[in-house]
Structure formats: structure tokens, C-alpha cells
């Protein structure tokens, strides 16, 4: 069997570890052949490939990014897109099945293609940790570590100037990164999409911190909305799947805090630094296990499913379950963190 492997959507620490785990298990145990699909779904549509064998994945587990490259291409658009064209491209390349490593957009496309008769197995990838049906996705732990270190560093300059630091992290429409990094770094308030807040409440938290002789540190997720906003802040247009590119809410909140409280305030957007660098040990292990589990799914012919983490076990779930909704921060988890605010 010849298996194509692709990484699609935003890059994420641990992608290379998934590729390595799949290729090593597939070649050693099942004598499978692999071919790398370059640039995500664009490579599937346009037939962009590269060799992928045991030699090419040597030492890959600790490397950040993805050797296959990625893109946010919609495989249903363009003259070469669509199930029938993709089937033809796969046949021409001798590809029997695909392992698609990606997040919500990637897996949604994989489901549509599987429904049209293609043989695809998914591996969940997102630093946002927002996919239903898996407890954790690789890349999340690394992103939290990077954000936590950044907040720790910003705290020292905040203390030096007695400024309020508003630190914006990724997460799209869920607040997992903000929640974990904020708690780990001892933030004085954590603002997440699941919990709209008033600017008055945010300012009150900042004043409470200042009155105790501290410099306020506030962590905000990019998808957070003030209770006066109807949609998250987005000035960067849409991606290939017509989803808004979020970002910049911290630059709205920080000036408002300064205006209302007199506390000099600064906004810092961490942005893509959270995606970069080498994966954490946890993410390397999880990603490797998921890559190996994907091979088991291929051998069992479990097309249209995604490998997922439940507790410490790996299971298979249908794409439909993984895409049934965003995995949001539960109220109890936020209430737990909120005890520490102000």
C-alpha cells in the first residue's frame, strides 16, 4: 500500500513527529510505502510530492514546523479541485490512501472527500486545543509553554515601570491557551471567548492589582469579545475556508484600561511565535503516538475517522464527531481560574 501524508492549515510544533511515527511504523511493521504531499491540500490538488522514507524522517521528532510544508488551500476550489479530479491525481501518483494531519478546516475537507469515496484517515492538529472528541491535541502544550515564558518576561518589565501589560495569545474561538498560560504565569485576569466581560470589570481588576502595589498582567485570547461587541475583532479578512483572521483585541483593551484607570498600559500580541520552535517533550510523545495510531487505522480500513486521545489511550472517532462543535472551556474551569483574578 502506498500512503500519502499531508500537513494542512496552520503549522504546529509536533507535525514532524507525527510524520516520523507514521513512516517508521508503516515501513517497519507493515512494509508500507509513503509519499509526502507538499503544501497541504494544494499538493493533493496539484500533485506536488516529495520522497518520504525512513531516511527522510531520521531525527525528525524534535524538529519544529513541517518538512512537507503547509497551506490553507480549499481542495474543492479551482479547476483541479473536487473529488473526481483528486481521485485522478491520486491514481496517477499511485496513492492508495491519505493521512491528513490538520485542524478543523483540514478535517472538514477530509470528511467531504471521504464522503465522496476517498480513503482518508485524520490526525488532529491544533495549538488551540479546540477539536471535539480528543482530550488534547499536540502543539497545545508547546504553545502554552511559549506563552507562559513570554508572560513571565513581560511581568518583569511591567513591575519595573508599574505598567499594565495586556498579553494577547492565540486560540481563535476558544480560550484554552489563555486559560492555561494565564494560570501558569499568575495573570491577574484571563479573558476568553467563552466569557465576555465588560471593560468596567477589566478596569476594576487592574485597579485592584495596582492598589495592592502590583503591576497588572492581563491575558486575553484573540477571540475574546467585550460585552458590547457582537463579533470578535478581525481586520485581516478571511482565510481560504472563509473564516475570519482574528487578532488585535489587546490593542483595543489596553488603551481603554489606561483611559479609565490612569495606569500606563501596553499591549503585546504574541502571534505566530506560539507556533514556532521545537515541540515540548509532551507534544513529541503525543504526536509520535498519534502518527503510529494512524497507521493502525489505515491497516484496519477505518476511513473517515480521526485518531484521538481519551485519557491516556488512543481511540478512533468519526470525522463527524470531531467536527460536531468547538471544544470550549467549561464554566467550572473558568470559575476556578477567576478566583485568582484581581
TrEMBL record:
Q: Which cofactor does it need?
A: Mg(2+)
SUPFAM superfamilies, A to Z: Phosphofructokinase (SSF53784)
Q: Which reaction does it catalyse?
A: beta-D-fructose 6-phosphate + ATP = beta-D-fructose 1,6-bisphosphate + ADP + H(+)
Quick one: where is this thing mainly located?
cytoplasm
Q: Cytoplasm: present as a keyword of the record?
A: yes
Q: Name one Pfam family in it.
A: PFK
Primary enzyme class: transferase
Show the GO MF annotations: 6-phosphofructokinase activity; AMP binding; ATP binding; diphosphate-fructose-6-phosphate 1-phosphotransferase activity; fructose-6-phosphate binding; identical protein binding; metal ion binding; monosaccharide binding
Task: Cite the binding residues for substrate.
Answer: 126-128, 163, 170-172, 222, 266, 272-275
Q: Which UniProt keywords apply?
A: ATP-binding, Cytoplasm, Glycolysis, Kinase, Magnesium, Metal-binding, Nucleotide-binding, Transferase
In short, the EC number is: 2.7.1.11
* Chain ranges of the Phosphofructokinase domain: 2-297
Q: Which residues bind Mg(2+)?
A: 104
Q: Binding residues for ATP, per the UniProt record?
A: 10, 72-73, 103-106
Q: In which pathway does it act?
A: Carbohydrate degradation; glycolysis; D-glyceraldehyde 3-phosphate and glycerone phosphate from D-glucose: step 3/4
Report the family membership. Answer: Belongs to the phosphofructokinase type A (PFKA) family. Mixed-substrate PFK group III subfamily.
Q: Which PANTHER family match?
A: ATP-DEPENDENT 6-PHOSPHOFRUCTOKINASE 3 (PTHR13697:SF52), PHOSPHOFRUCTOKINASE (PTHR13697)
Instruction: Cite the HAMAP family for this sequence.
Output: Phosphofructokinase_III
**UniProt-recorded name of the protein:** ATP-dependent 6-phosphofructokinase
| Annotated organism of origin | Mycetocola reblochoni
The gene name on file is pfkA
